[in-house]
From TrEMBL:
One GO CC annotation: chloroplast
UniProt subcellular location: Plastid, Chloroplast
Stated name of the protein: DNA repair helicase component of transcription factor b
Signal sequence region: none
Source organism superkingdom: Eukaryota
Annotated GO biological process: positive regulation of mitotic recombination; transcription by RNA polymerase II
Main location: plastid
UniProt domain Helicase ATP-binding: residue ranges: 7-305
InterPro entries: DinG/Rad3-like, Helic_SF1/SF2_ATP-bd_DinG/Rad3, Helicase-like_DEXD_c2, P-loop_NTPase, RAD3-like_helicase_DEAD
GO function term, MF aspect, one: ATP binding
Record key words, sorted: ATP-binding, Helicase, Hydrolase, Membrane, Nucleomorph, Nucleotide-binding, Transmembrane, Transmembrane helix
Keyword ATP-binding attached: yes
Membrane-spanning parts: 42-62, 399-419
């Protein structure tokens, strides 16, 4: 089928076109016309790879200057699928116009390795790429050596013959291809079967054939490593790169280019892990407190030595007593830092152990001080080394002694055997961080930069501070993409990592929003975040009074939940009308002023970016222990994108069922089983604090906490199957409790899988 996109006739291979695909074509035309870089978010499963190829072929056919499209995919099966679809639909097609009909035969190819394209019978399919490269270079070395020799010592050209001379390569396929490549027709769609079959029929090297096709073809589909980290990319001139478009199918391709990019980062979780390890070393291994009978106030510590003969002898085990290691005084400093002057080898060895432990503890405190700052900072490795040495000149340590600390920790953990079931990731990350800084400070490598930011790139919604080393060599590679190519397009569903990346690259591309909006219904409403109560009351006076008894029960129940639960609450209403009615009831009971004083309320909005901001602020309130309430609607932002139990002690799903005399909500409000009597409420919470339910919930919902409280109101989904007299938390046997819990969890999973979570 054919249609016009801003006066451009576009051939589309399918019979049906989705509106998201047309919207995507409009974005591509804007980027191609203005020769700018762009970022778009697209939903998966819409066939955007074939739409970009078909749009580019029609765009390139009607443009005066011919251009090239390089489309980078993540997996080999996706590349093969794209080539097969283009061979099926885009091998040859006609574009009808008023003046003349045009027949278009595009040239599309995919890049492959030498292991798949080499026709030499010695090489097998299971062979490694490095071995194939070495074998190929050994065969082609005479040809390239003679070619270089002719540049320095020019010789008269001889007539071309089919006989292989000593100056030519030893590969028959390569020599035959060089003599006859001028007669090859490069157009068409080249799959791996066509390349191999063509090479077998003509006795050509299919790999070098693919390199020539790469220069002349219109569209290239490949993995990012096969294009930019191989010899094929060097064959492109600057003129070709300036006239070519580069499309990344996902941002993860950019992040996976180099292992050092965002590799070593230090955040509060690492520091907490280090402090936990130091505490365990102090408590369980080396130190135990002993109170003497005569002097009860005098506390001192002694070494709890082990049976290993490698460190200590039997005589020292009985005698050695040390003063408090944790008090900072001059005697302690002299004792631990002058261990080299000790004549006794065993005593000197013990002092060296405590000196290393003290330095590790101080390194952890050094990084903890950096993470408590509120200012964005940037260092070179040399600057960071100078800052580190100013702090640690008292302890007679330098960054060169980090290797000694690494060996010390590894030997100590192996000797004690206590950490067999626990990985000390915190210590290893900090020492790797210092190792990298030391190496790059000595080599004066300015491509490494140390950043301290208040936002962690891996968990952007948590807003945790992070200290990380960034290799700007990969960033320079990204920068070369943006400078050399006429337009670079990045397709991603997660746009949270991009601002920090483009801050490093110093590039400002056009950022388009997500193409498909995931809101299903039209009952979204305006924002009530941090507004005055008077404005809110004026709006409520206009609303008609309906179902006063039902709304009164909803509001009473919500009031008691907010009073009793100190942490975050997530509440999902069926519509905007239910929220307005509950707010009106809060106004009648004069409870609205108390809520705005004690808690922060966040309402869902039609704007995606504002919802992200509100949800981040809600999570921050939960982290700091502030009462927060996030109110959402069915089918909205929370239920589709970010529905989780990470930051919710109470999760309320309110359904629009009518409240009758025998309904579950009526029983709760009349008898006030849970909330009118504090004892029953705490018993209810204690039951949910138990580890059995917490483990069962964590199997299905990943949560930071050990438990979560769930409420659902409605006739269809009753999670509480008990009557008013029998309490849910008072089962006699553990089997009855487990059966009840399993029944609840089955309903929770069924509810989430069918409605709110897209796995």
């Amino acid at each position: 089928m054919q249609f016009y996109v801003q006066n451009l006739c576009v051939y589309f291979p399918y019979k049906i076109v989705f509106p998201e695909q047309i919207q995507y074509m409009y974005i591509l035309k804007k980027i191609f016309d203005k020769k700018k870089h762009g970022i778009t978010g697209i939903p998966p499963g819409m066939g955007f790879c074939l739409t970009t190829i078909s749009f580019f072929i029609s765009y390139n056919f009607f443009s005066k200057k011919k251009k090239k499209l390089i489309y980078c995919l993540r997996r080999e099966n996706e590349i093969e699928c794209a080539i097969a679809q283009s061979e099926m639909f885009l091998s040859q097609f006609t574009v009808y116009s008023l003046e003349k009909d045009f027949i278009i035969k595009p040239s599309i190819m995919a890049l492959y390795d030498k292991t798949k394209l080499c026709l030499n019978p010695i090489i097998k399919n299971d062979s490694i790429l490095d071995e194939v490269e070495d074998f190929c270079h050994s065969l082609l070395s005479p040809y390239f050596f003679s070619k270089k020799k002719e540049t320095f010592f020019p010789i008269e050209k001889k007539k071309e013959t089919g006989i292989i001379t000593n100056n030519e390569s030893k590969c028959f396929f390569f020599t035959n291809y060089i003599h006859k490549r001028k007669k090859i027709f490069f157009k068409g769609i080249w799959t791996i079967f066509k390349l191999r079959n063509f090479g077998i029929k003509k006795n050509f090297c299919s790999f070098f054939l693919s390199k020539d096709i790469f220069v002349r073809c219109d569209v290239v589909i490949s993995h990012i490593y096969q294009i930019f980290f191989s010899e094929t990319f060097s064959s492109l001139n600057k003129k070709l790169t300036n006239c070519s478009f580069l499309i990344f199918d996902n941002i993860f391709d950019l992040e996976s280019l180099n292992s050092l990019f965002f590799s070593v980062n230090i955040d509060p979780l690492v520091i907490n892990d280090c402090q936990r390890g130091i505490f365990l070393l102090k408590k369980n291994f080396y130190w135990s407190q002993k109170i003497s009978i005569k002097k009860k106030n005098f506390n001192f510590f002694f070494i709890e030595l082990f049976d290993s003969d490698s460190l200590f002898s039997d005589n020292i085990k009985k005698v050695v007593f040390w003063k408090n290691f944790f008090n900072k005084n001059k005697k302690r400093l002299n004792f631990f830092f002058n261990f080299s002057q000790q004549k006794n080898k065993k005593r000197r060895r013990i002092q060296r152990i405590f000196h290393n432990l003290e330095t590790i503890e101080q390194i952890v405190f050094f990084f903890k001080e950096i993470l408590t700052k509120t200012i964005f900072q940037k260092w070179d490795p040399i600057e960071f080394v100078n800052c580190f040495l100013k702090k640690f000149f008292i302890y007679e340590t330098s960054i060169t002694s980090i290797n000694v600390l690494v060996n010390f920790l590894s030997n100590l953990f192996c000797l004690l055997g206590f950490f067999n079931f626990r990985k000390m990731n915190g210590f290893s990350k900090i020492l790797e961080f210092l190792k990298l800084i030391w190496i790059n400070s000595e080599t004066y490598n300015q491509n490494f930069i140390i950043f301290f930011s208040l936002e962690n790139h891996k968990f952007p919604l948590l807003l945790e501070p992070c200290l990380e080393i960034i290799c700007t060599e990969t960033c320079l590679l990204f920068k070369s993409f943006f400078e050399n190519f006429s337009s670079v397009i990045i397709i991603s569903n997660n746009l949270s990592n991009l601002p920090f990346l483009f801050f490093i690259i110093d590039c400002k591309p056009k950022i388009f929003g997500k193409i498909k909006n995931f809101f299903e219904k039209n009952f979204l409403f305006s924002v009530f975040f941090n507004i005055k109560i008077s404005n809110l009351l004026n709006k409520m006076d206009k609303i008609k009074k309906k179902k006063e008894n039902q709304n009164n029960k909803y509001s009473i129940f919500l009031n008691k939940i907010i009073e009793n639960i100190p942490e975050g609450i997530v509440c999902i209403f069926p519509s905007k009308f239910h929220i307005e009615e509950t707010l009106e009831e809060w106004n009648k009971e004069k409870f609205l002023n108390k809520i705005f004083k004690k808690t922060k309320i966040f309402f869902e909005n039609a704007d995606i970016l504002e919802n992200l901001f509100f949800f981040d602020q809600y999570k921050l309130c939960c982290d700091f222990g502030i009462k927060a309430l996030f109110i959402s609607i069915y089918g909205g932002f929370l239920s589709k994108a970010n529905l989780s139990l990470h930051f919710s002690r109470a999760f309320l799903l309110i359904e629009p069922d009518k409240i009758g005399k025998n309904s579950r909500l009526d029983l709760l409000t009349k008898k006030s089983i849970f909330f009118n009597k504090a004892n029953y409420f705490y018993e209810f919470r204690k039951f949910y604090v138990k580890e059995e339910l917490g483990r069962l919930l964590n199997k299905h919902f990943k949560s930071k906490k050990n438990f979560g409280v769930f409420f659902v109101f409605g006739k269809n989904k009753k999670f509480f199957e008990d009557d008013g007299q029998t309490k849910f938390w008072k089962f006699k046997t553990s089997v009855e409790k487990n059966n009840q819990i399993k029944h609840i969890i089955k309903k929770i999973r069924f509810f989430f899988l069918n409605k709110y979570i897209n796995f």
